[in-house]
TrEMBL record:
The lineage of its organism: Eukaryota, Viridiplantae, Streptophyta, Embryophyta, Tracheophyta. It catalyses: ATP + H2O + phospholipidSide 1 = ADP + phosphate + phospholipidSide 2. Mg(2+) binds at residues 110, 114. The chain crosses the membrane at residues 176-197, 203-220, 249-273, 285-305, 317-340, 346-366. Belongs to the cation transport ATPase (P-type) (TC 3.A.3) family. Type IV subfamily. GO terms for molecular function: ATP binding; ATP hydrolysis activity; ATPase-coupled intramembrane lipid transporter activity; magnesium ion binding. It holds the Pfam family Hydrolase_3. SUPFAM superfamilies: Calcium ATPase, transmembrane domain M (SSF81665), HAD-like (SSF56784). This is Phospholipid-transporting ATPase. ATP binds at residues 84, 90, 113-114.
Amino acid sequence: MTQIIINSSSKDSCRRSLEDAVLMSKKLTMFSGDTHTARGSSGDGVTPVALIIDGTSLVYILDSELEEKLFDLASNCSVVLCCRVAPLQKAGIIALVKNRTADMTLAIGDGANDVSMIQMADVGVGISGQEGRQAVMASDFAMGQFRFLVPLLLVHGHWNYQRIGYMILYNFYRNAVFVLILFWYVLFTSFSLTTAITEWSSMLYSIIYTAVPTIVVGILDKDLSRRTLLTYPQLYGAGQRQECYNSKLFWLTMVDTLWQSLAVFFIPLFAYWGSNIDTSSIGDLWTLSVVILVNLHLAMDVIRWTWITHAAIWGSIIATWICVIVIDALPSLVGYWAVFEVAKTASFWLCLLAITIAAITPRFVVKFLYQYYRPCDVQIAREAERFGNQSALSPVQIEMNAILDPPRR
């Protein structure tokens, strides 16, 4: 690598060294013709640049007008080494990057002199070892050895992003679809104070009916295996590209939520139009249909099924039926015996079936078309895992290799 060493003992000397180094790095960048290649690749005809700077120079650079020159120089380098720096200078280097870019910063250390740096970074990792536990106490994640950083980022970091990104969208959907049903009822009844869904069902919706599947899937679901994520570290880029959660996915989820709430509300309303059914009976139908719907919605997106996932999803639907039956069996509560009367009719079961088909079909079609015609890297890797036991490379694996490991220049 081309090494740029800055080891100065005065501010003027630091300024001259930075200016000369910036010119040198720009010349190397122009020679390569590709900024990204010059910064990190070791391809043919390109010499990566390394910046080496000591703590004495940083005394004159940090918190002065020279900070911007240091940032420009560091941006053109593949690696920056800061030697013999004080704890506050470590934090200053982190702040130098955070204040000028939108990139996430990670700091890792094993001693008390790393605490300032760990606290300044977006993500702090502490190593528990001979230096004590001060770094661990100040960090977001702790581990025993530095080599665990690779699985922490590439495996658990990817899993965590995938789970949180999906759970944010799902929880917005899960709560919004139920609230919108109540909203349509309020509009249809001219803002009356009556309610079709009982207070008990409204309260238990987020406690029993749909809570357990959300927790189980958020903890156990995995889109890719550990081996695949370590073999293809490029898959970590899914989080950097915001593939699991972005504004487009959010608004598409809200549109899907709006459609599903309309299907749940209006299909029973038109089916029982002109009948003598009471509000409690149709309210029970809305409650059961929305719980079945949100759990089926979650089941469509589960990637790794376990017996716990099966028990959580299908058990929640069974628990909802039991709760509704118990609530309607108590004479002291509103809607006494409502579900028993409405369940006798064929219209009740046809409505449940029609709601499920009408609400889920658009999402199923869009999901199928997107994954079939425009699969992302993660989807291709999942298919490669499925067919990876074959002796020869399948077309899916060949495509994955071409996307995730393109030929270098």
